[in-house]
Write a structure and sequence with these properties.
Layout lengths: L1 H22 L5 H22 L1 H17 L1 H16 L8 H14 L3 H17 L9 H11 L7 H9 L9 H22 L7 H22 L3 H29 L4 H9 L1 H25 L2 H15 L10 H6 L4 H15 L4 H12 L3 H10 L9 H23 L3
Helix pairs in contact: 1-13, 2-13, 3-11, 3-12, 3-13, 4-5, 5-6, 7-9, 7-19, 9-17, 9-19, 13-16, 16-17, 17-19
Length: about 400
């Protein structure tokens, strides 16, 4: 799907440029497109190279986190809950612990570890699946939680905001945490009702209560703060958690007598290769998005939505961030490029860039997750998985916009 979308974005932009040039509405449109190609290609490379240091640090730290067994401890804590949720999976099945380990890795932002563990979990769940070509309830629930899973610290978004010059790169921390929590909760609750999971189970009620109280407390606390304090406190909490996490990891590494320096170096070595690897993806998406904007097509589309907002008396300041929302379910790299392009166009400290960042962190790339996880075990009948995943995405994106207004709008 992303291949077709990418190609048509080029063709639509070029057709629009030809029409504008022939009619005389915009005789400079081809010059604008060419300038955009060169400018965005350079931006993609500059961003990638600028991320080498930050990527190296966090990949090194994440390597230590893996070695300390922090993810495994979280897994052990959550295993009883998932035994309740996946009622068709035997209690002694290794799939339960693998599922929880995947969720813990996602929660900690360990993307490199989360995907292979997630694929292993799908294989183990497939053992208990009676219809091998059709997704089981447990597999659908697992997929929904993956496509909307809460990431406690969205390091990647912080890095891009810092690289693009945001005054407080971590000021989106609390809004992202709230938005992705809403996405996960809506996804889980809708699937739980569909699968007739016993929502009156004491353990489940306990965890859901903690979750609701946590989200409600944060919302109430930040809603009563003045505008500037909301942003500053969100950034401060984000920074404090990052620092405390580093300290905690180092203390655990010291206690377990782990060779933290050597492990850190091994992980950090991947920083350069990762930064280089993302260049082609950023170039491909930033260039086509730049052409789409330079041709005027994106502006026409956004103006149409703004017109509808005006018609229904809705504030339209969020509309400039919507391209990220449209791209997010289809392509992670595409949504990331849209976010970067929004920051480049409106400034990293602008409201559209703030909303784009929160949307980017509010949910996962649904079509990618569904394709990879189900494709790995040859499941062709996904039943209601896509519908509920997109519903979860919609809830997360709406929440991202609302929380952005709560935190940013004066």
């Amino acid at each position: 799907m992303i291949n077709t979308l990418w190609l048509w974005m080029f063709l639509i932009a070029i057709i629009s440029a030809i029409i504008q040039f022939v009619t005389g509405n915009n005789v400079e449109v081809f010059s604008l497109i060419v300038d955009s190609i060169f400018s965005n290609a350079k931006t993609a490379v500059d961003i990638s190279l600028g991320l080498i240091g930050i990527l190296s640090f966090w990949l090194g730290l994440l390597k230590i986190i893996e070695e300390t067994g922090i993810a495994q401890k979280i897994s052990n804590k959550l295993s009883p809950l998932f035994r309740v949720l996946m009622k068709d999976v035997p209690e002694n099945s290794p799939a339960i612990s693998t599922v929880v380990l995947n969720m813990a890795a996602n929660f900690l932002g360990l993307d490199n570890a989360a995907t292979p563990v997630g694929l292993k979990a799908m294989e183990q769940l497939q053992v208990h699946n009676r219809k091998k070509d059709e997704a089981s309830d447990a597999q659908i629930l697992f997929m929904i939680l993956n496509s909307s899973s809460v990431t406690f610290i969205p390091i990647t978004i912080f890095m891009y905001r810092a690289q693009m010059g945001a005054a407080y790169p971590t000021d989106v921390f609390i809004p992202i945490l709230l938005a992705t929590s809403v996405s996960t909760f809506v996804g889980f609750l809708s699937v739980a009702i569909k699968q007739k999971i016993n929502l009156k189970n004491r353990l489940l009620i306990k965890w859901m209560s903690y979750f609701i109280i946590f989200i409600t407390t944060i919302c109430i606390f930040f809603s009563i703060l003045p505008y500037q304090k909301r942003l500053l406190l969100s950034a401060s909490i984000g920074n404090a958690i990052l620092v405390l996490l580093i300290g905690l990891v180092m203390i655990i590494a010291l206690k377990k007598k782990i060779k933290s320096y050597e492990i850190f170096i091994d992980g950090a070595k991947e920083g350069f290769s990762v930064a280089i690897k993302i260049i082609p993806y950023l170039v491909s998406m930033l260039v086509v998005i730049g052409i789409f904007r330079a041709s005027g097509v994106l502006d026409i589309f956004m103006q149409g939505i703004k017109g509808m907002c005006v018609m229904f008396n809705i504030d339209a300041k969020f509309v400039d961030a919507l391209p990220v929302a449209f791209m997010k379910p289809l392509s992670g790299s595409g949504a990331r490029a849209m976010m970067i392009e929004t920051m480049k166009t409106f400034g990293a400290n602008s409201f559209p860039s703030f909303v784009a960042s929160v949307i980017q962190g509010s949910t996962e790339t649904t079509f990618y997750v569904l394709t990879v996880y189900f494709g790995a075990i040859n499941i062709s009948k996904t039943r209601y998985a896509l519908k509920y995943a997109l519903w979860s995405d919609f809830a997360g994106i709406v929440a991202a916009i609302l929380f952005s207004y709560m935190f940013y709008a004066n």
